Design the sequence.
DNA sequence: AAGGATAAACAACAGGGTGTTCATTTTTAG
DNA sequence: CTAAAAATGAACACCCTGTTGTTTATCCTT
């Protein structure tokens, strides 16, 4: 990588914006360096002065998103104020962080996103969550805990994709409540089933 | 596509096997026609005699998997024997079908799989499921139903990926029970939480 | 079994993207 | 203002692509 020159920073910004733009339309593998440089309005040689290839570029951007993500999460996961961090607040914090990084989310988790990155995201939370489950559900088998995590982590990303596809019009809290509700109660989240109906108090609009 | 000649069928078999083989190692976009032909042991020109490009090849294979899938599902979804098709049996049938098509599943849903195909799979069940939900959960909003489906369909695919990564050692029924359990009860699937413990009857080994 | 038809193998081609190098111009920083 | 750093444009050999034309092998029919 080149230095912290004013021009260097601008060039890298142009490159990143071009990639974000192009990843809205097609997968990385269908994007050529030449194409990206035309969109960015820079010389092709200049690209190679900054990055080895398109994959290195995406990796850098994903890495920064990952840092943001972990940083935004750390206060929520700290041991110091266990009274403050209710499950819902943690979930809401996660979705808020995702909303703040909407562009990168689209890039990495949208239709032309990077499956490997999604897997990485999931893995970050895995141990912590499974350990946490294990403390509360002492009778569940390790296998059950792992499968539960596999399901709900993928489910959350599916939810996020849906949210993205709708332009993230709902608030982070709202989506977090949905995720929370499903993870906690399954279909129970949808309210009383027909036939077992009662004077319903539910949480929809 | 060429005719049904004996040689043609063998050639196509070789091509398909080569693609399946290569997709274990890298995404389609990183595979060249040249490479595939070397693996398949055929001439590069011969490939173009059968397929337009690698994407057409994959599409054909995915299409066949999709047909298998819908065919395996149709008896489960028919209206004729509604007493036979309990939710668990349907779910088990789905996972059994996925297990029968393990190779294609790895190809399309594994680490180097095709996000678009997963999305297509999800969309197939969407309307049917949401309509079905709507009948049972008359008080839930459309948005809740859609978000619930987005979550659990993605969750099921996440579960499938986990299952695949473990070589599908568990039975289809077992995985179906897990999926069913989570979808129905959320964390409740994991048994009684600590603090609210009672003489537990759970379903693990 | 012979012969016409079909498909595969082979070779050659232009076209386009890659990654690198070099000389040149522009911009930044001291 | 000057020297260093960065961007540019052009050129390059390389590899993959997709196509075409020719030759060889295999098939199906008679």
Sequence:
């Amino acid at each position: 990588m080149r230095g912290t020159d004013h021009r260097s920073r601008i060039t890298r910004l142009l490159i990143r914006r071009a990639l974000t733009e192009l990843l809205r339309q097609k997968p990385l593998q269908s994007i050529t360096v030449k194409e990206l440089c035309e969109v960015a309005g820079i010389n092709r040689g200049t690209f190679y002065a900054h990055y080895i290839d398109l994959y290195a570029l995406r990796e850098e951007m994903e890495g920064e998103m990952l840092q943001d993500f972990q940083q935004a999460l750390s206060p929520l996961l700290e041991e110091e104020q266990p009274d403050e961090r209710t499950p819902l607040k943690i979930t809401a914090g996660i979705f808020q962080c995702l909303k703040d990084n909407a562009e990168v989310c689209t890039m990495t988790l949208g239709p032309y996103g990077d499956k490997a990155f999604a897997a990485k995201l999931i893995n970050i939370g895995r141990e912590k969550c499974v350990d946490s489950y294990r403390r509360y559900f002492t009778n569940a088998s390790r296998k059950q805990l792992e499968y539960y995590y596999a399901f709900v982590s993928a489910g959350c990303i599916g939810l996020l994709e849906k949210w993205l596809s709708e332009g993230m019009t709902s608030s982070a809290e709202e989506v977090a409540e949905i995720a929370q509700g499903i993870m906690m109660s399954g279909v129970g989240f949808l309210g009383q089933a027909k036939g077992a109906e009662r004077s319903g108090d539910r949480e929809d609009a």
